[in-house]
Amino acid sequence: MGMGQVYLGQVEKGLVLLCAALLLWLTAAQGAPGLLILLANVLDAFLLARRLGRGERVGRWEFFFNPRAGARRRRGPPGRS
Question: In 3-state terms, what secondary structure has residue 22?
Answer without folding.
Answer: helix
